[in-house]
Amino acid sequence: MSEDYAPHAAAYGQGRIFQSERDIQITEHHHHGASEAMRVPTGPASVRVPLSAPLRTALRDREELREELAAELGAGGGVHVLHGFGGCGKTAVARWLFDQAAPSGVALWVDASTESQLRAGMLAVAADRGAGPEEVRAAQEGRRAAADLVWQRLDASAEPWLLVLDNADDPRPLRDGWLRASARGTVLVTSRQADDPAWSGVRARMHRVAELPVVEAAQLLHDLAPGVHQPEATRRLAQRLGCHPLALTLAGGFLSQQVLESWTVEEYLVRLGEDPVGLLDRGAGLESGARERLSRTWQLSLDALAQRGLPEAVGVLRLLACWGHAPVPVGLLAPSAVLAVGVPGVAAERIEAGLRGLLSASLVDLIEVPGGAAGRPQRCLTAHGLLLETVAAGVPPERRAPLYEAAAELVNRAVPEDGDTGTARLVEPHVLALLENGVTADAVLDAARRLRDAHDAGGRWADALPFAAGIAKAGTAEAGASQGAYRDVGAVADAIALGKVTDLSGDLSGAEPVLRGALDAATAWADEAPLLLAEACIRLSGLYGRSDRLAEAIQLARDAHEITQRVLGPAHAETAETIYLEVDHQSLLGRFGIALRLARQLTDLLPDLHGKRSEDVAVRSVLMTAATKRAALVAARIPGATVEDEVPELSWDQVGRESQEALQAHIAYYGPDHARTAAARHNHALTSWERGDQETAIATMRRAIATRRVELGDEHPFTLEAIAELARMLALKGDIQEAARLAENAHAEALRTLGPDHRITALCAVAREAAGR
After folding, report:
1. Which residues of 266-291 are buried (b: 16+ CB within 10 A; e: fewer)?
2. CA-to-CA distance for 700 and 451, rounded, in angstroms?
3. pLDDT tens for each residue of 612-657
4. Checking DSSP bridges between strand 185-191 and strand 365-369, what pairing results, if any?
5. SS3 content of the chain, % helix, strand, coil (to 5)
6. Are 471 and 449 in contact (CB under 8 A)?
7. pTM (2 decimals)?
8. What's the rounded mean pLDDT across residues 468-489?
9. Nearest CA among 222, 173, 182, 219 for reference residue 202
């Protein structure tokens, strides 16, 4: 640079320029008095007009909140803060209150989204309330305290007022004196920040604004998109959108503004599954800002957190998005677990800060949920489903797999080794979410197997079913694999487990192809894993027995018996299970001589029974023996019946005693409310009835039905069978009205699910006839 060179510049409108001459002198230039033509307006065009999009429809929700706010309008209404996540309707409520106040009073609206807009808007409020041009200019130029001027004028206002400070998502500028309470008016702030010194400093009353109730959400959709829409479809769309006000508004806007196409709500629901966020954004107007687009409204909060030094909030939210929409136990995010697993993008020592940032921005909530260990409430995090979908969609592809693997390892650590579903109940939805997202890491499969087996052991087969289905899907190999449709022996075992819980949950037709395919695959692996083939035979034998295909069921039980006796020995629990099955099948066929001889053989094995399931098989074998003896005595009463040699040795006293022992054994081993204990009650009720104790029989059968309804459902074959037996008892006792109602409903359901030829359908028909007589 030449020595005689000096840079020169000019600044306008209070600008400053710093220039360096060589490297030893700094010159400060001030240029005041710019021409009117060069001045840029520094304030809003109006503070008497709300700077928000007009409401598209009348508010039909938040009635209690609106009533409370409307009652506070006027002098001395205090400071109120509407807080909640982006798009939840805070500004809509503020706009409604503004519209209520404006016709008869002074209503002022200030955009508080940035410090400069807040300052300009508040000085415009001062001018509105009587501040002169010189006072305002002095405040603008820093020659007097701007916030003091504003509040002097507001406090001196001759008229009561409402002041709305909208979009104060960063409340820090408000702490500089811009937010105060006044005896002359009411202040309403909208913010995504739920906790800030600005609120406590003025003793603000906090109002959480969240999702709408389902009914109001569906009504909002109808208001926005009037037309011929099925009410149920509108309700389902509202639920699919999580009753999120902005999402509802965007969906309604799209449905009402179509020109080239005219989608129904049902069609919109189908298309929503392809790209929910993209489709919803199509409902925004051409001039809509970031806050009015679902793809950006939450990103604004995340950007603000990053500017506050909390970029890890994004990593925490991405981790939450790997799991389900159900509450997430805070223990899953424990820094020690995060450190051990190594979650990508989340530093263990910063996870607490990131989480607190999300809480402060109303992106997540901290709640207490029943269902923790020993029934204690457990602290959990919740986030809106659409937010999680949006965040998940934004995860870079290269980070997705390691992030999901870390999420899988965290839930795996949270599931006890024994699969205790009481402790793990709150983690279960997140294991399922990972399975549904196609995550097949060993960690998630291990956790899912423990939960599947725990529900199976507890008789909660419907609860076990989604875990079994997810695991089996992960183990299915490509078509044309060398060993059938399964990846390996473990995958075949998982398919057998799926067939078992499908069967026991009541879906007999759905279970058969699963077990049939597993049996074929297990046959291919028979040399390497003969016990796998035996297990497939046992499960399919049980299914065929419940489906009245008894000849096939007996053959499968005998095939399994040959394998287990050869590999495990005659006194192993798995061998005893095969005998148990044939006792049941022969009894259903009316071959009581064979059934009783097999039952005696089974009883003789019990003292020496061994194997992992020995106690389980022993308890059920006691019940099977008692039930077979009862059925044999009942059959012997039928005129003209053939009484086999073993039957005359039986007595009702003996059968009554054994049925009571079987019930007590089930209560002791399974617990009083287990589905298998309900089977023991069922048998004891029938035995009590045959022995003439009608009151005990009816009360016991009602208890069995109650358990089965809770654990298995109203439509389960076991439930229908118990209802039919109760209806028959009531009819014979003379309680015709209840008997007829129960029998009619059970018969209709049995016809639908089991068909006209099934044994349980016939039992329901007998109960109907008894009630008819």
Report:
1. eebbeebeeebbebbbebbeeeeeeb
2. 31
3. 999 999 999 999 999 999 999 999 887 766 666 677 788 999 999 9
4. unpaired
5. 60, 5, 30
6. yes
7. 0.80
8. 71
9. 182
Whats the size of the chain, residue-wise?
Answer: 773
Rounded Cα distance, 72 and 1, in Å: 68
Q: Please name the amino acid found at residue 13.
A: G
CB atoms within 10 A of CB 175: 14
**What's CA 204's distance to the chain center, in Å?**
34
Cα 171 to Cα 81, 197, 302, 454: the distances in Å are: 11, 8, 15, 49
Give the model confidence (pLDDT) of 286-303 as tens digits.
556 656 677 788 888 888
Q: How confident is the model at residue 26 (pLDDT cuts 50, 70, 90)?
A: very low
What single letter denotes the amino acid at residue 71?
Answer: A
Give me the pLDDT at residue 420, please.
73
Distances (CA, A) of 345 to 334, 353, 359: 15, 14, 19
Using DSSP's 3-state secondary structure scheme, residue 459 falls into coil
Mean pLDDT of 461-485: 76
Return the beta strands (E) in 173-276 as ranges.
185-191, 205-208
In the chain, the amino acid numbered 202 is V
Instruction: Measure CA 624 to chain center.
Output: 39
User: Closest by alpha carbon to 171, among 308, 317, 354, 297?
Assistant: 308
Query: Amino acid identity of 508?
Result: L
Bridge partners of 143, per DSSP, are none
Dihedral (CA of 576, 578, 584, 590) sign: negative
Residue 483 DSSP class = T
Q: Give just the sign of the alpha carbon dihedral 754, 757, 758, 762.
A: positive
Sequence-distant (6+) residues with CB within 8 A of 348 are 335, 336, 338, 339
What is the tens place of the pLDDT at every residue in 40-81?
Answer: 446 788 999 987 767 767 777 788 999 999 999 888 889 999
- Confirm if 57 and 256 have CB atoms less than 8 A apart: no
